[in-house]
Each structure stands twice: as C-alpha cells, then as structure tokens.
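=== Structure Prediction Worksheet ===
Name of assembly: unnamed complex
Input type: mixed (protein and possibly other molecules)
Chain count: two
Listed entries:
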Amino acid sequence: MIETTIITWIIAIFGAITFLPLFGAQLVMILKPRSQKAKDLIIGKGENWRDKTHFKSALAFAWADIIIILPLYILGTVWVFNGQPWGYIIWISLGVLSIYFSILYWILEKEYTYKSAGWIAYFTYFWGFFLYWGLGAIAHSILQLNN
Amino acid sequence: MYSLLDWEGAVKIGLQNESFNGDAAEQAIADVEKGIAIADILWAFPITVVAFIGLLREKFIGFIAAMMVFAICVYFPLIYTFRVSMNFDIVLAAIIMWAIPSILGIFGLWMNRKLFNIN
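=== Predicted Assembly ===
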C-alpha cells in the first residue's frame, strides 16, 4: 500500500482538468468527425483540415485516446487512490505518452493552434497542461514508488 | 537519427516510407513521421538508454524507464491500427515487433519487480 499525499490529489485533479476536455473534444471528433465543432476543438477556431491525411490522423488519435488513454487514466487514478503501485506505473505510462505527444504536437500543430488559440490558451489547456501533467505525474510517481 | 539528417536518403533505403517530394498526401504523412522521429530522438531514445543501463544494473530507475519505453511501444502500433490509411503489413509488423514484446516486457518486469525494490 502506498499512502496518497496532497501532491497525489493535486496531480489527480490537475489530470482531470487536463484530460477531461481532451476526451470531450475527441468524443466530438468520433461522433461528428466532419463537423465544424470538431475542427474548432481539435485544430483551432476557424481552422480547416489540411488534407484527408491530416483528418484521418486526427481521427486515429481520437479513437486511441478514447479506447486506451481514457480507461488507463481512470484505472490508474483508481489504483493510485487504492494505494496500488500499478496505479503509479500507469500514471508514469500516461505521463510519458503525454510528454511524447507534447513534443510531436509542438512540431506538427504549433503554427496552426498557437495562432488561433493565442499564447495563454496554448501554453495552458491547449498544449501546456499535457506537458506539465506528464512531468508532474512521472516525478510524483517515481518518488511514491521509491519510498 | 539518420532520417532527420537525410530524410530522402532514409526513404531511398527503406527506413522511411513517405517522401517530402511526393504528392500532398504523402508530404502530410512525411510531416507526421518526421514529428515522430524528432520525438523519438528527444524523448524515447534517452529513456531507452536509461532503461538499458538501469535494467542491466538492476536499478529502480531502469525499471521505471523500461516501463516508459514499453508504454510508447504499445501505444504506437495502436495508433497505426486506428489510422485507416495505414498499410496493413506495417500495422502487423508494428504489432509483432513492438506491441507484443512490450506487453510481455511489462508483464515480465512486473513479475520481477522485487529485483528493483518495488513491492
């Protein structure tokens, strides 16, 4: 059993703030992939898919997020609060993927999303939160597992 | 690393499939693949080095780093699976070469976690 701390709570709440809007946007992408709402949420307000490949890639990421990342986030958080080491391993896995995609989207999408979202939104909920959550979750999980 | 230094050279020898000299669709995929290559070099590669050294020395950080690498190696074949335009052979190869060994790796590491001082 690993005791939770105030930092565990902060990371869990910050994770919910970070991931729930993403899951919402990805659900719109899956349910109404061709809608303007999906484009506004995924690439930025008023932006358009660059081509069919861009659209298909976004749809693939949407399915992967809903089928894999969402259950992992829920499972990891539940196990963390049950004091199970596996919960922290899942948080580390999600953290590493979150950082990986932060790098990927910095390269791929910054020129589109940064422009349409503005720097405050970009460095917070549009992109930055995923990087910060990944770093925080990894650091906290390593400390918890190592104690 | 070689792809980033000479993308078209990497396409010629089969390391990459999509060229920046192709049609619009091919260029778009090449763009995504280049982004993945950069993320691999900046993030996945250093973690892999730490994992190798850490596992060989039976260090806790090796266990954590290996789990991180396995997470990436399980997730990416799934992205390929969901991407409907992806060639089935590549999807199958990614599942066999990355996802399945990584799932086994996660299981094997967890069974041996006591070596790394995890209860």
